[in-house]
Design goal:
- The protein is mainly alpha-helical.
- It is built from three helices and no strands.
- The protein has one domain.
């Protein structure tokens, strides 16, 4: 696959992902966040296995950074939401 094809697929994936996420109602945000955390975990494993060469290593590093941010953010949001359901003294 040449670089132009890969870049085109990447840009289309970003655009479609953005459009899908902006259309999600707030009531579905938490279930989707948990699914997103699972996908990010798979991304982390894939990035660790795929980092060959200079460009591959750099892209794997970026994938690890972004997937880690997503997983940590998901856990923080979940923790915050669970705090809202605790009984107040």
């Amino acid at each position: 696959m040449d670089i132009i094809t890969a870049l085109t697929i990447f840009v289309l994936a970003v655009f479609i992902g953005f459009e899908v996420i902006t259309k999600v109602p707030p009531t579905l945000h938490t279930p989707l966040m948990s699914g997103s955390n699972a996908i990010s975990g798979i991304t982390l494993v894939g990035a660790l296995l795929a980092g060959e060469g200079v460009i591959g290593g750099f892209l794997a590093f970026l994938a690890i950074v972004f997937a880690t941010l997503n997983v940590v953010g998901g856990f923080l949001v979940t923790h915050r939401m669970l705090e809202m359901f605790k009984k107040k003294d």
